[in-house]
Write a structure and sequence with these properties.
Structural class: alpha/beta
Number of strands: 19
Radius of gyration: 21 Å
Number of helices: 12
Helix content: 25-40%
Shape: globular
Distance between the termini: 27 Å
């Protein structure tokens, strides 16, 4: 993918599982939701794997260990080894290890995933600011993380100890809805200390570096549901991306996406990995995909035609992104999206 401004989703004459050697898959909203497999995920991933594509699962959730994630995926019917899982805990542990001595103590504000990742890099997790840590690392610790853990972080940071965060996702999906994520917890410490952490997780380069080091991918395809982590992470890593609409991103957010949030491809779910992608072509003052033609008017996006709703969405993306250039499209696309049932 070029870093020039993307103004349209791309087409592909080959199945994406053949055009790319490794899929770097987000988990929540892509493979599962609320712990249960998303429709078509298990079969699609099995077919891609059987065709020779490597599958790697890349998550900003620093709570669970790779072993635990792999076990969960295997239980869902997706055979997975711990080596197939890359977490933001691993990325931040490498980032810390590059800046502190081997065997150094690191104050952990988070869960077991962080502790395992730090030990893997030869660092010693500790629980108190009184344990003379040389760094503080903060990651999602689950809904029962005690408030006092934030105080320990603040005490150490106030003494000048460098602060690291696995990721800054403000929210996470749960079986009951949207819950506060590690980013919300990071804000607590930021407000109390005035400090700024070094962050490793998506969409930042340390996570992409960790993923490529662990997978050896040469032609990776990032597959995700979030524009501000998955797709922006692909943009920062200068690799292609597939947005699936099984998670948090809706049509309106996609049409308004600034350049760093515009995916290479758009599809409904993981079945999109197994097929080619239709071309979006210029059509007079607008853009055509399948049976749909989209144009950018004075105040709104217009859509004419009929056919597959995803083709209409792709055409609308081209119209919106072209109109927006290197900004965010402010044209009203509500009526056009309603025609597509999106």
């Amino acid at each position: 993918m070029s870093q020039s401004v993307r103004t349209s989703p791309e087409g592909s004459g080959r199945a994406l599982s053949e055009a790319y050697d490794t899929a770097l898959l987000d988990l929540d909203g892509v493979v599962y939701a609320g712990g249960n497999a998303i429709a078509h995920a298990v079969d699609s991933l099995a077919t891609a794997r059987a065709g020779g594509m490597r599958l790697a699962y890349v998550t900003n959730n620093a709570l669970r260990t790779p072993d635990a994630v792999a076990e969960h995926l295997t239980e869902l019917g997706i055979p997975t080894g711990a080596d197939d899982v890359i977490t933001s805990a691993q990325a931040v542990a490498r980032l810390i290890s590059e800046q502190v001595p081997a065997g150094a103590r690191v104050l952990v504000i988070g869960g077991e995933g962080l502790r395992v990742a730090l030990r893997e890099r030869g660092l010693e997790p500790v629980d108190s600011a009184e344990d003379d840590p040389v760094a503080v690392v903060q990651g999602y610790g689950g809904p029962d993380l005690a408030w006092g853990r934030f105080a320990e972080a603040c005490y150490a940071i106030a003494r000048g100890v460098p602060w690291f965060a696995s990721n800054t996702d403000l929210t996470i999906p749960s079986a009951r809805g949207i819950a506060p994520g590690n980013g919300a917890a990071v804000e607590v410490v930021r407000i109390a200390t005035g400090a700024e952490p070094q962050v490793a997780g998506k969409p930042l380069p340390p996570m992409h570096k960790e993923t490529i080091l662990r997978t050896g991918a040469e032609r990776p395809l990032v597959v995700g549901d979030r524009l501000d982590t998955d797709i922006e992470g692909a943009f920062n890593g200068d690799v292609d991306s597939l947005l699936v609409l099984t998670g948090v991103t809706d049509g309106a957010q996609l049409l308004a996406a600034p350049p760093q949030h515009r995916p290479t491809y758009v599809d409904a779910d993981l079945r999109g990995m197994l097929t080619g992608q239709p071309e979006v072509t210029g059509a007079g003052d607008g853009f055509r995909c399948g049976g749909w033609t989209a144009t950018a008017g004075g105040e709104r996006l217009e859509l004419d035609g009929e056919g597959e709703s995803l083709d209409g969405l792709r055409a609308l993306c081209a119209a919106a992104w072209t109109a927006a250039g290197d900004g965010s499209c402010g044209l009203d696309g509500e009526k056009a999206l309603a025609r597509l049932g999106l």
